[in-house]
Design a protein that fits this description.
Layout (H helix, E strand, L loop, with lengths): L1 H36 L5 H8 L5 E6 L6 H11 L1 H6 L2 E8 L3 H10 L5 H12 L12 H14 L8 E6 L10 H8 L1 E4 L2 E4 L3 H19 L5 E6 L8 E2 L7 E2 L2 H9 L3 E6 L2 E2 L11 E2 L4 H9 L3 E5 L24 H4 L2 E5 L7 E3 L7 H18 L5 H12 L3 E3 L4 H18 L1
Parallel strand pairs: 1-6, 1-9, 2-3, 2-6, 9-13
Antiparallel strand pairs: 4-5, 7-8, 10-11, 12-13, 14-15
Helix pairs in contact: 1-11, 1-15, 2-3, 3-7, 5-7, 8-13, 9-10, 11-15, 13-14
Amino acid sequence: MNRYILLVMLCIINVSCNLLRKNESMEQIKQYVDFIEKPRLSAKEYVVKKFQDYDIVIICERQHRDTSQYELFFQIAQDAWFQENVGHIFTEIGTVNSYPLLHRLLFNMPNLSPNELEMEIIKIVRDYSWSPCWNAWNYPNFIKRIYWLNESLPIERKIDLIPSDFYFDWNKINTSDDYDEFYWGKFVNDVWKPVKDRDSVMYEHIVMHFDSIQQYLPRKKALTILNFRHAFEQNTNYGFAPEDLHTNTGKLLKDKYGNKVASVYLNGLGWPKSFDEELGYTIIQEGRWDAAFKITNKYDVGFDFAGSPFGKDKVDLTPFSYTVDSLCFSDLFTGFIYYLPISEHIQIYGIDGFVDDEFRVELERRVKIFIESWEQDISIQDFIENLCESFWGQKILLYDNLEEMESLINKIVEDYKSFF
């Protein structure tokens, strides 16, 4: 009899604890909802307004190949105040040595036909990556849209795109040893000299160009688009040891320019389990954030993390070993922009005309070097065929686990509506 009573009591306690957790979760979502429902700026308005107080505004972009975020970036570029007072856009995408050709296209090659423009863009993007090639459609399309926008603007309002990644020239890479020296480093006088940290390199490229902008040009501010941890205002660790500290470009810029730098998180997904894509991307805050925006039917909003219930939440973007999980979102970012629900985060692959017969020969050369350098056990011919196929036509993709994530969001929304 006593055992039966104990079992009943344990069941009651378990149900009570679950109800308490659910109540706490619903109250937390209500805080989000109440905050969102107050008058808010749109994502574009928020980013542009940040430039009234900051010289550099970083956007922490979603996956590199996400196309929907580039609609927001273009809205920003279209803004008259942005054109008059900012006008410069640094990107993580693109080698720094691709800038002269890109700048020439955007500023000094007017009146191109659509076909001529396509070919000029392809010339640039074939050589703007230190991988054999880059098959994301969004950035080449962004270049095209900025070109047509600039065609309608006076010189003092034209938009400048400034790549900031490694200096890299495939024409100077003839063997896997050449590539190894670029990527891994080399021995100098029997001492190993590793390649400089990529974040430090991007930081130096941005600083060099930005300081020149501030000194010589009338528009002295810049939007900077960086992916994931590169945009963090804090450094991250690959492990728990101090020597595993990994510098981030956002943190370096913040250290140099202080309160003139703001980093803004654009809603996306995280990788809190690991960077193994087979585990799938994970929805932020177990779907509570996305549920709150769905409840309010507001999908284009921007605000500061400080003073918001969102900023107090623990960071769940990275694997546990990155150690930023002990921080709040307001520790990593100045602000937050929610632009489109996850069901409308679209990735597009493929660039028509990118791989012609002549470039395929060059692509095969690059792939052979790349595979040898990375010691990958893969057929070079299969790799090339798959790579070429990725450029033929456009492939539109959504998140692999979208259905699972949307079910979670919808369940939270249903619970909220039945609770209040």
